[in-house]
């Protein structure tokens, strides 16, 4: 799981990278050709060592089709020891990093032996060391850093893996599939052998060796098979694994019930590692996780952490079908597995929690992470047409917009036909490497519905903009819609798209749905839709539940939004009305126009007082949109003006409704280990209310926050309080930060929070604090979580990062340059913070461009960072 919010020492790399020129080649989707050679079977033998590992690979290769091209095996940083074909030393050449062998027959057995150096692997791709253990990460192109192989997802092989190593250093040896043999060697060594019966692409290969302990459990599948489950962690972390285990079992049952998908092996393993580039990885039967998505208890993890663990555990488990059993033909099809699997994990989280709140959270992520991508220089379609480095395409567009696309299919077809479609998809393509077109075809064939018009969502980048106006005359209302698609890089001319809009009309007086919800599909540049029997003044409720991932502006009568904010029968639309009310005030303020705070204040007050709403929804509804979201709405971005506007609105709310906020802040106590949606909602509202209060009287708010901090019996309240305190100028701020550090500094995941909270602080001196933290002994640039906590968080702190003196830009650019020498993937993911430089006021715009140019001019830049920076400047 890539994490969109939202995951290493240069001269330590043994094989220096070839010097990189700005001519890094683009790979194009239209150039796809089936593989020249297939590899039905592979046997791997590992002689494990932290510094040096020896890998012997035996490949049975088979010519694919009629051609006389040689066997071309990808490699990256491998030290070649020997090559043989059919048992004889073989002639071979190196073509750059690739190994090329001429083979006359149509079939052969190819053996290679290489050495690699896990502890020097700071890229965390291939086989690497983390906390004394060895583990692998192969997606997308890491397997070539382990052995020579056709490293592409459409080459599927059966794996046999033997690993041997020191029994004291590596008591536990794991790989994909079933453990079929084990034994002891001399010199305190031992070995184990695994066989995976399911052919898989090499990106799903995994190996783990280390001193780990398991939380064990089991799950009985719908056909009555018992599956042994194990979550492997360091011994001290065992008590923090129960939530992940519970989540796994829930996910297994859910996939049976909702998709009819049963687990297919007798074992399922999850391993937690502390150094990991992303969220987690779906290797067949051996999922490897960033420990942040496994470990949790009430003292150290927030409610959001618990939810994220459930989400990511489910996501990786769901990949067993949507990703492993059916995989991708090529990396352009990445959304085939990721968009679909994100949609599946979103549906799961909605089902086990609160659907309305989950939808609000998902849309917030989409708007904060994907919309900016779609509007900026790095915009790309859900199914990209070209890439320089595929790691740069694990994006919110491929994941989250991809999930929205699948959701639209679900909406248009309805649950039943959608399920028929996925059944057919799994049946038709089981054991294959498929394409996005194959997926749509299965939905079409099973449902008898033509979805061809919708395919443009795969190929056309950019967020559609829709304008809506409702006319009312007599008893008829007419909805006039217009859509527009802005040009994006390499796509200057756009086609109109089919946009499914769930729409209803609410009566202004009655508050009832006078025209019940219906699904309208806008597929022309301009279109009108009629509603009959409109007997009262109509309120337009449109894009309900966010049925299409678009930006919509409705022409509204005065007070229409206020009324929808209280009366809309769709929870998401009701939330949306609140957000629109606040957004109107915030953007007006940022432009220096008069601001109507009263309307917002009244709406917030009514929301807080409502008996019909639960606390979780209230918390979401009264949350003032972030600086980043406001910036998205401005033609020219002035971060100081936006920040000041937001502060003014928050202060007006706090001054006018302090007592109601205080009541919400104090709402009934729930115990910290109560993880029900209700209890989580109460905690969330407690901190959101505190945040608003802190915009009023700072001293009182600091007292309240410190009290919440001191009293907290759970990390949600503690982190919530500290998150408010860090932005205040009060003595309690440093007291709480120190107390937090002293208590938790041995827990890496909690220490990440300590860094992240300070990097996210809304203060004039945040840049100074962040510069200091970068010198802190606990700041470890090689650990992706720590780097993201400080530099990644700071890049998302709109006001501080865009500080007028340009020091925020300098800091992040320096970090990107330093990190790139160690871990290009993680470094490249921090570049988008600079991406939208063209939209800023001239001074900042120029400084952002200079920062990008300075990164671009750095000698030896990785392909990853090169691609992001050059595209940002283009
Ligand atoms: N395939 C992983 C997921 O989304 C994400 C990932 C990609 C992890 C690349 C590591 C490396 O589940
Ligand atoms: Zn995934």
Describe the structure.
The chain has about 850 residues and is an alpha+beta fold. It is built from 26 helices and 31 strands. Strands 6-5-9-3-2-12-15-14 form an 8-stranded mixed β-sheet, with no helix packed on it. A hairpin with a 5-residue loop joins strand 27 (about 500-505) and strand 28. Helix 3 runs antiparallel to helix 4 and helix 3 (about 335-350) packs across helix 5 (about 395-415). The protein is globular, with a radius of gyration of 27 Å. Bound molecules: phenylalanine and zinc ion. Zinc ion binds near residues 1, 315, 319 and 338. Phenylalanine (PHE) binds near residues 137, 280 and 394.
Q: Helices and strands in order, then pairings?
A:
Blueprint: E1 27-28, E2 37-47, E3 53-63, E4 71-73, E5 79-85, E6 88-89, E7 93-95, E8 98-101, E9 107-116, E10 126-130, E11 133-137, E12 156-166, E13 172-175, E14 178-184, E15 189-201, E16 207-210, E17 213-220, E18 226-233, H1 242-259, E19 267-273, E20 280-281, E21 286-290, H2 303-318, E22 327-328, H3 334-352, H4 355-375, E23 386-387, H5 396-413, H6 415-429, E24 433-434, H7 436-447, H8 456-459, E25 465-473, E26 476-484, E27 499-507, E28 513-522, E29 526-531, E30 538-542, E31 551-555, H9 560-567, H10 571-590, H11 597-609, H12 615-622, H13 627-632, H14 639-665, H15 677-693, H16 698-711, H17 715-725, H18 731-744, H19 748-759, H20 766-773, H21 784-795, H22 798-801, H23 807-820, H24 824-828, H25 842-856, H26 863-873
The structure holds phenylalanine and zinc ion.
């Amino acid at each position: 799981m890539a994490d969109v919010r939202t995951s290493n020492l240069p001269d330590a790399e043994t094989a220096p990278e070839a010097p990189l020129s700005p001519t890094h080649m683009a790979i194009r989707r239209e150039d796809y050709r089936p593989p020249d050679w297939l590899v039905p079977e592979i046997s791997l033998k590992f002689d494990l060592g932290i510094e040096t590992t020896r890998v012997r690979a035996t490949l049975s290769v088979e010519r694919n089709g009629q051609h006389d091209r040689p066997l071309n095996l990808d490699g990256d940083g491998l030290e070649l020891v020997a090559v043989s074909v059919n048992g004889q030393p073989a002639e071979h050449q190196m073509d750059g990093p690739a190994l090329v062998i001429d083979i006359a027959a149509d079939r052969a057995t190819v053996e290679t032996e290489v050495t690699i150096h896990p502890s020097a692997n700071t890229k965390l791709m291939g086989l690497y060391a983390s906390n004394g253990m060895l583990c692998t990460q192969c997606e997308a192109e890491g397997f070539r850093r382990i052995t020579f192989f056709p490293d592409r997802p459409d080459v599927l092989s059966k794996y046999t893996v033997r690993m041997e190593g020191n029994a004291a250093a590596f008591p536990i040896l794991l790989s994909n599939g079933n453990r079929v043999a084990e034994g002891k060697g001399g010199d305190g060594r031992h070995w184990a052998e695994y066989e995976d019966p399911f052919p898989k692409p090499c990106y799903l290969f995994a190996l783990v060796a280390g001193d780990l302990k398991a939380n064990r459990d089991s799950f009985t599948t719908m056909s009555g098979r018992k599956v042994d489950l194990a979550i492997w962690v360091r011994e001290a972390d065992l008590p923090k694994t129960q939530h992940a285990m519970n989540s796994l079992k829930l996910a297994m049952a859910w996939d049976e019930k909702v998709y009819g998908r049963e687990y297919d092996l007798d074992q399922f393993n999850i391993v937690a590692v502390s150094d990991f580039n992303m969220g987690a990885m779906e290797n067949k039967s051996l999922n490897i996780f960033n420990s942040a998505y496994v470990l949790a208890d009430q003292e150290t993890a927030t409610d959001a952490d618990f939810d994220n663990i459930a989400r990511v555990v489910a996501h990786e488990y769901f990949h067993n079908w949507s990703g492993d059993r059916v995989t991708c033909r090529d990396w352009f099809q990445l959304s085939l597995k990721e968009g679909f699997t994100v949609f599946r994990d979103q549906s799961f989280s909605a089902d086990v929690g609160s659907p309305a709140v989950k939808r609000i959270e998902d849309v917030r992520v989409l708007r904060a992470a994907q919309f900016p991508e779609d509007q900026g220089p790095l915009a790309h379609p859900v199914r990209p047409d070209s890439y320089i480095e595929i790691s740069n395409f694990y994006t919110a567009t491929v994941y989250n917009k991809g999930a929205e696309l699948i959701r639209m299919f679900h909406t248009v077809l309805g649950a039943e036909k959608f399920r028929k479609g996925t059944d057919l998809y799994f049946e038709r393509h089981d054991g294959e490497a498929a394409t996005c077109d194959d997926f749509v075809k299965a939905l079409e064939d099973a449902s008898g519905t033509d979805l061809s018009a919708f395919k443009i969502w795969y190929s056309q980048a950019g967020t559609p903009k829709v304008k809506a106006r409702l006319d009312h005359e007599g008893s008829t209302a007419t909805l006039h819609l217009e859509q527009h698609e802005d040009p994006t890089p390499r796509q200057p001319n756009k086609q109109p798209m089919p946009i499914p809009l769930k729409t209803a009309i609410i009566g202004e007086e009655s508050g009832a749905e006078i025209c019940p919800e219906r699904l309208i599909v806008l597929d022309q540049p301009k279109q009108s839709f009629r509603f009959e029997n409109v007997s009262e003044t109509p309120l337009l409720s449109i894009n309900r539940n966010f049925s299409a991932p678009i930006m919509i502006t409705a022409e509204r009568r005065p007070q229409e939004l206020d009324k929808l904010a209280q009366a809309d029968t769709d929870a998401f639309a009701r939330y949306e009305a609140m957000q629109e009310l606040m957004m109107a005030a915030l953007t007006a303020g940022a432009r220096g126009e008069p601001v109507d705070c009263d309307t917002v204040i009244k709406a917030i007050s009514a929301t807080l007082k409502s008996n019909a709403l639960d606390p979780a929804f209230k918390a979401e509804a009264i949350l003032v949109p972030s600086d980043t979201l406001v910036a998205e709405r401005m033609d020219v971005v002035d971060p100081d003006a936006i920040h000041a506007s937001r502060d003014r609105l928050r202060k007006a709310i706090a001054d006018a409704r302090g007592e109601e906020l205080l009541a919400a802040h104090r709402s009934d106590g729930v115990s910290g280990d109560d993880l029900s949606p209700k209890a989580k909602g109460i905690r969330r509202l407690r901190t959101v209310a505190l945040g608003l209060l802190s915009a009023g009287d700072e001293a009182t708010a600091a007292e309240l926050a410190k009290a919440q901090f001191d009293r907290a019996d759970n990390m949600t309240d503690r982190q919530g309080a500290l998150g408010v305190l860090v932005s205040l100028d009060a003595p309690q701020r440093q007291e709480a930060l120190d107390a937090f550090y002293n208590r938790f500094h041995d827990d890496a995941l909690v220490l990440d929070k300590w860094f992240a909270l300070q990097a996210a602080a809304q203060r004039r001196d945040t840049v100074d604090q962040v510069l200091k933290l970068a010198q802190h002994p606990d700041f470890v640039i090689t650990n992706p979580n720590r780097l993201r906590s400080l530099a990644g968080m700071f890049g998302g702190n709109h006001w501080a990062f865009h500080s007028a003196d340009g020091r925020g830009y300098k800091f992040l650019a320096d970090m990107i340059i330093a990190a790139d020498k160690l871990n290009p993937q993680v470094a490249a993911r921090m570049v988008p913070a600079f991406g939208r430089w063209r939209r800023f006021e001239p001074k900042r715009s120029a400084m952002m461009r200079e920062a990008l140019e300075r990164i671009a001019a750095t000698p030896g830049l990785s392909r990853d960072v090169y691609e992001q920076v050059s595209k940002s400047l283009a």
